[in-house]
């Protein structure tokens, strides 16, 4: 491979900055430079549209041979989707509120709150 004054081969291209782009835009940017994108663990990547690139390898500006694979990791954009954590998390809300409405008439509130925990 012939080297240019910039220090990389004539068939090489520089990896574009993909972090922050939507998946569809990242694919187009890579394709325009003759690169292929891959998202490890995301078999649906060819159809991903609104997911955002949060990490990439190699880093932007790295010279690589044309048709090289650039790995990207995706996440939903701010305020978008994501089911979050579905397991109970502590601490529990303080006693009172709806629990008071469920108390038996005449029972001390502290006993009812302790027995329902």
Give the helices and strands as they follow along the chain.
EHEEEEHH
- What can be said about the biggest beta sheet? 3 strands, mixed
Q: How many H/I helices?
A: 3
Strand content: 15-25%
Secondary structure category:
alpha+beta
Q: Termini distance?
A: 72 Å
Q: Portion of residues in helices?
A: 10-25%
E-strand count: 5
Computed Rg: 27 Å
Cross-sheet strand order for the largest sheet: 2-5-3
Average pLDDT works out at 77
Q: Name the poorly predicted regions.
A: 1-7
Shape: rod-shaped
Describe the structure.
- It contains 3 helices and 5 strands, in the order βαββββαα.
- Helix content is 20%, strand content 19%.
- The strands form 2 sheets. It has a 3-stranded mixed sheet. Strands 1-4 form a two-stranded antiparallel sheet.
- It is of the alpha+beta class and 117 residues long.
- It is rod-shaped.
- The model is unreliable at 1-7 (pLDDT under 50).
Please render the helix and strand layout as text.
Blueprint: E1 12-14, H1 23-32, E2 36-38, E3 52-57, E4 63-65, E5 69-75, H2 98-102, H3 109-116
Parallel strand pairs: 2-5
Antiparallel strand pairs: 1-4, 3-5
């Amino acid at each position: 491979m012939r080297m240019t004054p910039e220090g990389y081969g004539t068939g090489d291209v520089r990896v574009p900055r993909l972090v922050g782009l939507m998946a569809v835009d990242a694919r187009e940017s890579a394709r325009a430079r003759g690169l292929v994108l891959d998202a490890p663990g995301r078999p649906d990547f060819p159809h991903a549209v609104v997911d955002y690139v949060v990490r990439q390898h190699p880093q932007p500006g790295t010279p690589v041979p044309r048709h090289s694979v650039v790995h990207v990791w995706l996440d939903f954009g701010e305020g978008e989707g994501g089911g979050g954590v579905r397991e109970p998390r502590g601490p529990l809300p303080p006693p009172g509120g709806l629990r008071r409405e469920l108390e038996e008439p005449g029972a001390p509130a502290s006993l009812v709150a302790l027995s329902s925990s």
